[in-house]
Amino acid sequence: MKLTSGLGGQLTIDLGALARNWSALDKVSQGALTAAVVKADAYGTGIEMASKALHAAGARFFFVATPDEGVAVRTALPDAHIFVLNGLYPGAANLYIRQNLMPVLSSMEMLEEWLTKCVERNEAYPSAFHFDTGMNRLGFRLNEAVVVRERIGRLGYAPQMVMSHLACADIPNHEKNRTQLALFSSVMNQFPGIPASLANSAGLMTGRAYHFQMVRPGIALYGGRAVVGRKNPMAPVVTLHAPVLQVREARTGETVGYGASYSLSRDSRLAVIGHGYADGFLRSLSSTNSRPGAKVFLHGKLCPVVGKISMDQSIVDITELGANLPRPGEGVEVLGPNVSLDEQADAAGTIGYELLTSLKGRYNRVYVGNGYMPGE
C-alpha cells in the first residue's frame, strides 16, 4: 500500500463501518435502547469523529469514563445524553451540571455530594446508580440498596437509570453471568419503574434476559471480538499500515533485535518497519526462537515479526516474498482485512481492547466512510 503522507504510519478509521456496527447491534437489542460507549478516545478511534458517526446512526446515549471525555462528546453533540462511568469526581459537581453530564454514582459519598448540590440549587439533576454485583470494582454494595432507596425517597429524587456490569459476559455459559443477573434483578426490585442497564457488548449478544431497558456496547462497535469462541460478526473499523524503512540481507546464525533473543536459521531478507511500542505495537508481540509473535501482511503474504519490538521499529522476515520485495516508504498492513485486531491480540496474549486503546502513536489519521453521516 502507498501511504497517504509517505512519512509515517497511517491509521484509517472507517466511520461508515462504525455506524453500521451500531445499527446491527441496535437490531439485536430491539426493545431496549442502544447506547454507545466512547471512553478512551472512542477506543482509540477519536472521540469526536466517532461520536458524530454513532449519533448519525441513531445513538443518543453515550458512556464515557471521565468528565473531560464527557465535555468532548458534549462539544461534538449538544443534544446527547452522556453518562460518566467513573462517577462524580470530588468537587466537580458544578462542571457536570454546567455540561449536562450524568455521573454514574457508585458510593454513598458520591450520592451525598450529588444530592447536596441538588438541594442547594433546588433542582433534581439526573444521574445513574451503579451497584456492584460481582466485580468488586466501582459500585454500591448490594446491602446498600435499601439505604440508597430510603435516602433518595426522603428527597423525592429518582435516578435516570440503575446499572451494573458483567464480569464474565465474554464467556456466555459462565455461571457468574446468571448469578449477576439474579443479583441485579433483586436490586431492581428496590427501584420499581426505574430503567435498568446490565449488558455490555458481550452481554448484548448473550441473550435478551440481559438487555433490560438499555444496552451499552463498546468493543463490538469498533470491530473487536466480544464473545470468546464465536466468530466475530462485526465489521472491522480500524486499518493500520506502517512504512518500510529498509530491506536488508542477514545470514544464518545472526541475531535480530534487542537481547539477541532471535537467531536466524537461514539466510534471510528482513524488512525494518517504522512502527514500535511507542506506536501501540505492543512489545508482547515480539518473537523469539521458541515463541512466535505478530505477523503483518505484505505483497499477498503473512510475514512474521522476528526479534523484539523496539520503541520505534520492528523487524519482519520477508524471505518468503522472493524477488517481490517492498520499497522503502511502502505500507505494511499491521491491522486490517488480512490481519485482524483479534488475531494480533491473540498473538500478544491480550485482548482487542488493549490493542485499540494503545493506538496513540505517530500516525497520519485518515477517516473514511463519512458519507454515512448526514450533513458531513
Automatic annotation (TrEMBL):
It is an enzyme of class 5 (isomerase). Its cofactor is pyridoxal 5'-phosphate. It catalyses: L-alanine = D-alanine. Keywords: Isomerase, Pyridoxal phosphate. Substrate binds at residues 137, 311. Residues 237-368 form the Alanine racemase C-terminal domain. One of its GO terms (molecular function) is alanine racemase activity. SMART domains: Ala_racemase_C (SM01005). It holds the Pfam family Ala_racemase_C. Its EC number is 5.1.1.1. Pathway: Amino-acid biosynthesis; D-alanine biosynthesis; D-alanine from L-alanine: step 1/1. InterPro entries: Ala_racemase, Ala_racemase/Decarboxylase_C, Ala_racemase_C, Ala_racemase_N, PLP-binding_barrel. The active site is at 39 (proton acceptor), 258 (proton acceptor). GO terms for cellular component: cytosol. GO terms for biological process: D-alanine biosynthetic process. The modification N6-(pyridoxal phosphate)lysine is found at residue 39. Catalyzes the interconversion of L-alanine and D-alanine. May also act on other amino acids. Belongs to the alanine racemase family. This is Alanine racemase. The lineage of its organism: Bacteria, Pseudomonadati, Pseudomonadota, Alphaproteobacteria, Hyphomicrobiales.
